[in-house]
Amino acid sequence: MVIRGSHSNARRQGALMIDLLAALALLLGALLPLAYHLAAEKRLARTIYQRALAVEIVDGELEVLAAGEWRAYAPGTHRYLVRAASATNLPPGEFQLVVVSNRVRLAWQPAVKGHGGPVVREVGVR
Length: 126
What we know:
By secondary structure, the protein is an alpha+beta fold. Helices cover 50% and strands 21% of the residues.
């Protein structure tokens, strides 16, 4: 005894499976670039935040140094410890203070590339 409906039913199921796979491929083709874009945008936002934070800290510390705090340092290059609590949000790196006769330079140098880049500010002092 041959059942005619089972053969056409199997064909229908096969066609539905192919349609499902094609739809899944199209969906993945659209979502993967979107996911990559979102991840790249997240990295960019973190980099911009870290750069802005380093600029704010360097500017604030340089104001304190220019107001007279620079006199506590001998001429030369020094590792500078910042007082800002927000410095904990920066990636690993260091602040460096350079004192020359009439100039003070404060720089932030991240230890890893792609985390905001170096920030350098310099001011004349008397």
